[in-house]
Design a protein that fits this description.
This protein is mainly alpha-helical. It has seven helices and no strands. 81% of the residues lie in helices and 0% in strands.
């Protein structure tokens, strides 16, 4: 059984060393919780990512709560969320207190500009790993690409894209069932 101290410490490290928000935390969470401690399998981790995306609220907090609850129940959920948000809250408070001194500082602006590509890479890495896990191949890669383009270029609400994908998946599943019955 995972100790509450181990759970707190793992999420504290994740929260402390993540730049770029919730999606950038995915590789750190995966490395810490799946690869290092083996508290979750890859499939369980992917399920929690999916569930956390569907819930209202902050993605990283949702992840921490779901994982903490899965490992140690309600107390684990509370310990995980506190560990996950403690350092970012302290950093934000410190920045807010000193922000007026940093405005217009070219060094600070350069640091933030330099961090942007790192954040993009931190978000892109788990996307490609998850694509392998959910069997995205050269035959079906077009689905997430078209979904992203519909949202980005045409401004279609993600809700309509999700509903259309669900309907498409339903009808494709029915088609495949009929095809198997006929064979």
């Amino acid at each position: 059984m995972v100790s509450l101290l181990q759970l707190f410490w793992s999420f504290f490290k994740i929260g402390t060393f993540t730049l770029g928000g919730g999606y950038a935390m995915i590789p750190l969470m995966e490395k810490e919780l799946v690869d290092r401690h083996h508290w979750l399998t890859n499939e369980e981790f992917l399920d929690i990512i999916t569930l956390s995306q569907t819930m209202p609220g902050i993605f990283a907090a949702n992840m921490a709560v779901h994982i903490g609850w899965r490992l140690r129940g309600v107390v684990g959920a509370v310990v995980s969320i506190i560990g996950n948000i403690l350092m970012p809250i302290l950093i934000i408070l410190a920045l807010a207190m000193g922000l007026h001194h940093l405005q217009g500082n070219t060094v600070v602006e350069a640091v933030f500009k330099g961090v942007r590509p790192v954040v993009v890479a931190l978000i892109a890495a788990p996307v490609f790993r998850m694509a392998k896990t959910v069997n995205i191949s050269r035959y079906n890669f077009w689905i997430p690409v078209v979904a992203a383009l519909l949202i980005w270029l045409l401004g279609i609400s993600p809700i309509w894209v999700i509903l259309a994908a669900a309907a498409g998946g339903f009808f494709y599943g029915r088609y495949m069932e009929r095809k198997e019955v006929q064979s």
